[in-house]
Amino acid sequence: MDISPVALDTSIGLFCAASCSQLNAGKSQAFLVQAQPLASATVSTLPSISFITGQQTIKHLGVRLGYDMPAACHQTFTGIYQAIRAKVRHWSARGLSFSGRVHVAKQVLAASLWYHANFQRPPEQLLQQISRQLTRYVASAQHQSQGDAAVALAQGNSQDSAALPASAPSAALFPRVLTSSLSPAQGGVGLVEVPTQIQALQAKVVSRLLEPERLAWKVFQLHHLSHAPQASQLAYGATILFSTASTASLHLPARLMGYVTAFRALQPHRLLPVNAMPAEAILNEPLFLNQQIQLPLSPATTHSANGGVGSRPFTPQDQPLLLAAGITKVAHLPAALQVQHPQALTACLQSLLLALPLPWQAAATAAPTAPPWRQGHSASGTQLIQNTQTGQQHSLFITSMKTHMQRKNHKGNV
């Protein structure tokens, strides 16, 4: 891959102008996104900026990046693990009580993980080692006969470790970690449970996709979710997070895959039962990959646990005619049922209608309602909005001016 030095310097200049900052290219490093390590070999000799090659990594906002992201992630958390070991040695020399060690484990030791865990989940082996370090440190306060020598020996840092057995008796935490991690009101001591906390941090990232706040990174994540193989033709967006499609079948980037896995592990569910959902929520329900819309299977194919005929959610492969007609949500059914279709498509609509829960069937068969407002133009080309119930028309400019004046008067009366 050949990159022109002029094009590279021009891009750097545009970045500096847009961010009102300066960049010293001679002290900077870069790597080619989605490129193989060998692809950067031809650009590593550019005079303006150096490119990493092979297993080299660079840091951006404290996070290591490279062509081998699993290796970069392992390198990051190996350094954090070593730092936590050093902090354990430091705090083990203090005569803290059990409650004091619980506080240190949460606010000092485990806190070293949280920033990087927002971006990447630590490798499982390192995660278990870090969890054991924190548990041993806290539990050693309950075993004064062993004291901190057990912790030091477990780390291989005891001064007389040669005279001690190779496997020191590890301090057992009582009550166990899951119980100790509960709040004091629930019978625990508030001990940090590292894997659960990391899962919550990663799930929080995906949950923000469901919030209305507009952020630049949401565009990229929604793009990947919308173009997943199972969802590319459905236009479900973030709704695919609640679908029955397996996370692996979405073929997402590794970091987004970790976020989605953590979010789904929390088992998100509806706040209202299916029978109590308002009509607006029912119309927004997807038709495909929905746990509430089941396709009955033949008895020869499968049976449910209670001996009846089994079922599974509708998939795009089951109803290609509906997908081709753009019928992917319950909101599309009222209008589709009012139109004459070919026999095959009509049969698909009827089978799908019967698969809906009874309250959803009522919403799907209701006559489509006209929107309360309709946009149009006057003879002179002015943009208008019309109230479909009264027929009254309003100019968008006048309406916006009225709203502005009402807000201004309201502020003046406060």
Instruction: Give the % helix.
Output: 40-55%
Output the strand order for the largest sheet.
Answer: 7-8-9
- Gap from first CA to last CA: 64 Å
Count of distinct strands = 9
Number of helical segments with 4 or more residues: 16
Structural class, please?
mainly alpha
Shape: extended
How confident is the prediction overall: mean pLDDT? 78
Strand content: 5-15%
Q: Compute the gyration radius: what is it?
A: 30 Å
Give the biggest beta sheet: 3 strands, antiparallel
Listing every helix as H and every strand as E from the N terminus to the C terminus, the arrangement reads: HEEEEHHHHHHHHHHEEHHHHEEEH
Oligomer: single chain
Characterize the structure shown.
The protein has 414 residues and is mainly α. It contains 16 helices and 9 strands. It has helices spanning 5-19, 69-92, 98-109, 111-117, 124-139, 149-154, 177-180, 194-207, 216-226, 254-265, 279-283, 320-324, 333-337, 343-355, 358-365, 396-413; strands at 29-30, 50-51, 57-60, 63-66, 294-296, 311-313, 373-377, 383-387, 393-395. Helix 2 runs parallel beside helix 5 (124-139), helix 3 packs antiparallel against helix 5 and helix 8 packs across helix 10. Mean pLDDT is 78; it is low at 37-41, 150-155, 158-169, 299-308 and 398-402.
